[in-house]
Design goal:
By secondary structure, this protein is mainly beta. The chain has three domains: 39 residues, no CATH class; 74 residues, Immunoglobulins (Immunoglobulin-like, Sandwich); 74 residues, Immunoglobulin-like (Sandwich).
Length: 213
């Protein structure tokens, strides 16, 4: 630390000027006492303050991406184990925090970690938490349909199949079936497929019976 030079004088002669400065200054304020001695051994003192500031940010390295499934029956995940970031500082780490929600929604959530040192300097990093919906939707098919052939034909068209009952822990995206436009005589199996918003599927089957009356 360059302390500078004090201004001294004496009616006879200045013999020496000294100070009690340490070789290494700690963080914060240090009082340095200067002493001037004249040729007769008389002395005088003054004090100087040296203030050391920590202007170096701490460092932080986030935990790896976390991949979890939704909680049973829900479209969210709770109690996610994020792991622990690696932190360091030239002085001391005061705190490490994050802005993680208590419950994570489906998809990607960015968690920001912040490390703060003892002087208030900060650094951040980000971690991704990916929540996947691994729960299939459910589907219950309409009852068997019994119809007669159309007049003068050996087939039946415009058959009212009914509507299946569906549900999902997140959201049902679509419900489809493979029913033909015209049903032949006898039994035809119709497969219904429900797809949720994450692409998970479930199926059920319904029978359409066409009778020649």
């Amino acid at each position: 630390v360059a302390l500078g030079t004090p201004t001294t004088s004496d009616n006879c002669a200045v013999a020496s000027t000294t100070n009690d400065a340490p070789g290494v200054f700690p963080l914060g304020d240090t009082t340095v006492t200067w002493t001037v001695t004249d040729s007769s051994g008389n002395t005088a003192t003054c004090t100087q303050t040296v203030t050391v500031t920590d202007n170096i940010d701490p460092t932080i390295s986030c935990p790896a991406t976390v991949n979890v499934n939704v909680d049973a029956g829900l479209c969210t995940a709770s109690s996610v184990a994020l792991g622990t970031p690696t932190t360091s500082d030239n002085c001391a780490v005061a705190s490490t925090t994050n802005d993680a929600p208590g419950v994570f929604p489906i998809g990607d959530t960015t968690v920001t970690w912040t490390v703060t040192d003892s002087s208030g300097n900060t650094a951040t990093c980000t971690q991704t938490v990916t929540v996947t919906d691994n729960i299939d939707p459910t589907i219950s098919c309409p009852a068997t349909v019994n119809v007669n052939v159309d007049a003068g034909l050996c087939t039946a068209s415009s058959v009212a199949l009914g509507t299946p009952t569906t549900s999902d822990n997140c959201a049902v995206a679509s419900v489809t079936n493979d029913a033909p436009g015209v049903f032949p005589l006898g039994d035809t199996t119709v497969t219904w497929t429900v797809t949720d918003s994450s692409g998970n599927t479930a199926t059920c089957t319904q029978t359409v019976t066409v009778t020649d009356n």
